[in-house]
Amino acid sequence: MRYIASCSCGKDSLAMVYKIIEEQLPLDEIVFYDTGMEFQSIYNNWNKLTNYAQQRGIKCVTLHPKCPFLYSMFEQPHKSRKDGIVRYGYSWCGGRCRWGTSEKLKAIDKYCEQQDTICYIGIAVDEVQRLQKERKPYKRFPLADWNMTEADCLQYCRKHDIGWIEKCRTGYIDLYSILDRVSCWCCANKNHWELYNYWKYLPEYWDKLKDLQRKAQRPFNKYTIFEFEERFNNGYVPTHRKK
Questions:
Q1: What does the pLDDT look like over 92-144, one tens digit per residue?
Q2: Smallest Cα–Cα separation from 9: which of 202, 176, 187?
Q3: DSSP per residue over the chain, as a string?
Q4: Which of 90, 46, 41 has the alpha carbon at shortest distance from 69?
Q5: In terms of pLDDT, which residue wins out, 203 or 87?
Q6: C-alpha 43 chain-centroid distance
Q7: N or C: which end of the chain has fewer CB within 10 A?
């Protein structure tokens, strides 16, 4: 039996992996799927975890998409299910068109299913719908077994000196202080409050979003990035409505 932990290096999966090691549960490998569009702090935390795990004899593996993210976003030919017309690129990943997420989950499942495997998945106990959806016989959910919520996971990471530090306008900032989820920086599921914080604190990533919007076939999240920028410049400050 091979024991694998899937780790995105967000708060939940990192808390899970470090606690698995702390509790001395069986663990042979840790798998990280690199979209190529992760925050720099995600890569920093993956490198840190890799060093920590390898010192304990745990293998660390990085998976990659079949095609580069930007090729899939702007160039990959695909036929529409609605009208049969061939279009190029899937545009933003998010909402009903989560093509990058689908590819990621398929790649991780395929990797885990190649051998007799138990795969640890970092879904917190208060993410009920995700827990129900992800049920497969070889998957285990330690966070739910430990009754750890998303807030518990973040607190665990804080106590173990794990942060998501990025350069900002005023110096440095932890992403979990300005974002609800630290997913790909170009994820179109970002809400208005999160986008406002991109614009306010993370000019480098905001400029990257504008670069993508210039090529994208559709708005980012109801509005284009340029429309969001105009609204923010005109004094629009979104209310934070965390789920």
A1: 998 878 899 999 999 999 998 888 899 999 999 999 888 888 678 899 999 99
A2: 176
A3: -EEEEE--SSHHHHHHHHHHHHTT----EEEEE--S---HHHHHHHHHHHHHHHTTT-EEEEE--SS-HHHHHHT-EEE-TTT--EEE---S-BTTB-HHHHHHHHHHHHHHTTSSEEEE----TT-HHHHHHT--TTEE-HHHHTT--HHHHHHHHHHTT---EEEETTEEEEGGGT-S----TT-TT--HHHHHHHHHH-HHHHHHHHHHHTT-SS-SBSB-HHHHHHHHHTT--------
A4: 90
A5: 203
A6: 11
A7: C
Radius of gyration of the chain (CA): 19
What six digits make up the tokens of 136? Answer: 């497969």
pLDDT at 243 over 60: no
Residue entry with tokens 């480098």: 204
What pLDDT was estimated at residue 148? 98
Residue keyed to tokens 């900002």:
168
Specify the pairing of strand 59-63 against strand 29-33.
Answer: parallel
> Which two structure tokens, joined as six digits, stand for 13?
């999966």
Alpha-carbon dihedral angle through residues 228, 233, 236, 242, given to the nearest 10 degrees: 60
Checking if the pLDDT of 26 tops 70, the result is: yes
Average pLDDT over residues 179-194: 95
Express each pLDDT in 61-94 by its tens digit.
999 999 999 999 999 998 777 777 778 899 999 8
